[in-house]
Amino acid sequence: MTVRDKAPVTTRTGPLLFKIVMLALVDAGALFAMSILVTKGSYVAFTIMLLATVGINAIYLSKRALPAKYITPGVIFLAVFQVFVIGYTVYIAFTNYSTGHIISKGQAIEALLSQSQSRLPDSAQYPVTVVRDGSDLGFLVTSADGTALVGFADEPLHKVEASYDGAGKAVATSGTTTLSFGDILAVQQDVFDLAIPVSDSAADGTLRTQDGRSAFIYVSDLHYDAATDTLTNTATGVVYTDGGRGSFVDSDGNEILPGWQVAVGWHNFTSALSETSILGPLLRVIVWTLVFATLSVVLTFGLGLGISLLFDQRGMRGRTLYRIIMVLPYAFPAFLGALIWAGMLSKSFGFINQVLLGGAAVPWLTDPTMAKVAVLLVNLWLGFPYMFLVTTGALQAVPEEAVEAARMDGARPWQVMRYVKMPLVLVSTAPILISSFAFNFNNFNIIYLVTGGGPRDVSASIPVGHTDILISLVYKVAFTGQQRDYGLASAFSILIFILVATISIISFRKTKTLEEID
Amino acid sequence: MSTHDRRPQYQSTALERASRAFRRTGWRHLVAWVLCAFALLPLVYVLSAALNPHGTLTGSNRLFREVGLDSFHRLLNSDQYPFLTWFKNSLIIGLTTAVLSVFLGALAAYAFSRMRFVGRRPGLLSLVLVQMFPQLLAVVAIFILLTKIGEVIPAIGLNTQAGLIAVYLGAALGVNTYLMYGFFNTVPKDIDEAAKIDGAGHVRIFFTIILRLAAPILAVVSLLSFIASFNDFVIASVVLIDTDKQTLAVGLYRMVSNANYGDWSAFAAGAVVASLPVLVLFLFLQRYIVSGLTSGAVK
């Protein structure tokens, strides 16, 4: 009886309704995205999306699969933005994805054909009226047979109903405003730069005007022949062929951009390993990354431990206040700490040189060696409070009996420290030292916000500086400068993956043996 | 006479005592003061620079020589730097990430802690393994993926805060799930057994028992994810393009990307305002955070 009475509690309609509404929203979003994916022709993404949606519905509509109901929401984010992106990085590393190689081959051909256009020698003159739709300028064209066509920069000419003036020229159409002569003068340059595609195919050329009243057809000097997959420059007669690296090249190997995205196999890896202008700096960056991470851990741990020992004295006054002050740098947002130090270390205006060193001109951020010292100093400031907290906890956890027993055996204070406390502290903090190493291995903020990786290494062909670590190198290759090379940056990322994995495996094994000693 | 005799002797013991006291704790205070100066220097300096009415880096070197709120005024009324918008963005992104990542993490941790199913152990192990690879290593792939997502659904693509939050959620889930899994295991199972006998379903047990009892750790984990997204520069700088969509980390960096020429006092004022909520929260919850950070290694 009692069980029956309670039964309605577990099957209330509220939660069920909530579930159905949420599921309906997810499905609606998925259907919307899938419909766009189909029209774009992205069938792989469509299939993945479809399978995921079906899976989610199956999990939440089934009476079983209870654990999956709890785990799925989180796993979706984890799968896409943590697991998939790692695989995607590998894929990008094998492509030439970079500035000038972003789009597909078809788009690249269209782009090439709309470049370097000149006026078609026998082009007829078309009467045009400049119109405006929102912020877009366009042409209202009267064709030879008197019909009206309208087009914008991203919208090829198409037929419309229009009203005509006495001379049979279309002057207005609904949905747009006609610009007066004065209006045109105000946006003169925009009107002259306007190129309205004649049709969907770039080969048909564009309409351009030089007076705002009449337009001519301009076509590209390049002609694309789909059968032979070649571009021919009709003016010079040069023939460009697909060079196999995502661009058209002439017989001398000169490429014309934009190119397109294409798989290039191991090219990114081999060029990193064979070109000395990349390999040299890369090796230096790897060494510095390891040195930086190791020294950061050693210095912060050393200072943190030193401070814990300093305060490890009963009856010392003001310990609580000291402790709060020591923790402050850790509580302060790290990115701000790094930026403030960067200002303080400025060579000619900074606080350190001007006030603390009495007007010295130490090149903290501009000399290769001093910049390394500077980032280590700043990282020491940012990192020692954490180590102080950790070692304080570890010291307090050393059993009193062990210390007492050592004293009874006649051990001096430093012997107690060296042979009893230190081993215990090291064992219990070893995992933290390893995770601290892993963190500093990829400590982007400190490098990028303090020195920007600089000073710049001028001998390198990639944007790299003397304090760059691997992750800041990846960022600079991919996101700074004129030439952004996503493929090469991803190849560097994979290098980091391999290094991190190797170091983690080794250190996990070591800590296991450490734990066994304990 | 006798007092005369004793005096020098008394003095020498006082000196001795003082030197013994110094050897015992006095030198510790001396070292502690030096360390305090090191810890406090940038913080005092930035406060002084923020109160400095003039804008330059050089002008900020004389600590507290001039005090005024001009730079705060300049910062809040700047046409070039929408500081309040950045602040709002950082808060929205940070809070949403914190709440959602803790909630989603708690859901998963509940399943791992209270249910037995095929693939439970491999699932937990792969959570730990995935966390070995920090998300920022894949920053290039994230950028391109969000660009492609944006071509299909602009609302969660590149240059949107929703997209950035989704990326942060992916990064936070592994750690959060694992942290909370450990904590949920310490909540006695007898309590939910009892509730089950009284007719409570798994949903009710999760919301009214587990989440209630785990409130302190939920607060700490959400604070840690808030701080992590607040401090993030790499991914935020790549994902958010428009100035008025950016976060404090990216915006304040742009403000002083050339420290010699930027409005240093206005930046310092921004740094003070931006760090206050984090500092206060941190010191307030310090005990919990420290125990949460070290519980894995130091028992």
Tell me what the structure shows.
The model of chain A is unreliable at 1-10 (pLDDT under 50). Chain A contains 18 helices and 16 strands. Chain A is elongated, with a radius of gyration of 34 Å. Chain A has three domains: 2-93, no CATH class; 114-224, Periplasmic binding protein-like II; 272-517, MetI-like (MetI-like fold, Orthogonal Bundle). In chain A, helix 9 (276-310) packs parallel to helix 13 (368-396), helix 11 (334-344) runs parallel beside helix 16 and helix 17 runs antiparallel to helix 18 (486-517). Chain A starts with a helix and ends with a helix. Chain A is 57% helix and 13% strand. In chain B, helix 2 crosses helix 12 and helix 3 packs parallel to helix 6 (161-186). With 299 residues, chain B is an all-alpha fold. Chain B folds into two domains: 2-73, no CATH class; 83-255, MetI-like (MetI-like fold, Orthogonal Bundle). The termini of chain B are far apart. Mean pLDDT of chain B is 84; it is low at 1-8 and 295-299. Chain B is built from 13 helices and no strands. Chain B has helices at residues 2-51, 70-76, 83-114, 120-130, 139-152, 161-186, 189-197, 202-213, 215-231, 234-239, 248-255, 264-284, 286-294. At the A-B interface, helix 1, helix 2, helix 4, helix 10 and helix 11 of A face helix 1, helix 3, helix 4, helix 5 and helix 6 of B.
What's the architecture of the largest domain in chain B in CATH terms?
Orthogonal Bundle
Question: Number of DSSP strands of chain B?
Answer: 0
Radius of gyration of chain A: 34 Å
Task: Supply the number of structural domains of chain A.
Answer: 3
- How much is the average pLDDT of chain B? 84
**How far is it from the N-terminal to the C-terminal residue of chain B, by CA?**
63 Å
Range of helix content of chain B: over 70%
Largest interface: A-B, 105 and 97 residues
Count the strands of chain A?
Answer: 16
